[in-house]
From TrEMBL:
PROSITE patterns, sorted: PROKAR_LIPOPROTEIN
The protein's name in its UniProt record: Lipoprotein
Amino acid sequence: MKKRTYKFFVTALYVLLLLILVSCTEKTETKTHDENIQTIEAVLQNNLTGPDDELKQILKGEGKLEALGQYEENLYKDYFADETSYQEYISSYGSVLWIEPIRNDYKLEVENIEYEKSDSKEIIYNFSIELQYRKEDSESSEVETVNGQANLNEEHKIEDMLIRIEEPWSTFGS
């Protein structure tokens, strides 16, 4: 009888320990996943919603390059792993994305972003954005899907980001 009680107690303790371990692991993965998504979402929202009045003023004013550099640094730099990854993003996307929309009076707004973590050992997320765009003086708008990928490090900072922006940018010039 004593041996049976002992086996039951050891088995119950083992199951309880296993449940605690699994529970803690899931919370850590969920927290990490959420922090990665928050980083990606902040950059995408900042870069694909607008243009805001501050950016319009900078592009119309004197000393554009210095003001634009500070504007971009305030919006994006904290989300990138290092200076190189930040500069690569800014030179490919950053305010560069706003040239055609501003020139042709378009307003952009991120409607929804879907994320999918890749099966890779690296921290890579694919994303799909529903991007609404309209002429500033128009009531009607259109929605396009923009896809991309973000690679992050353990500190939840972006090492590399790709945004496939062919649509709707080809529309803005026409």
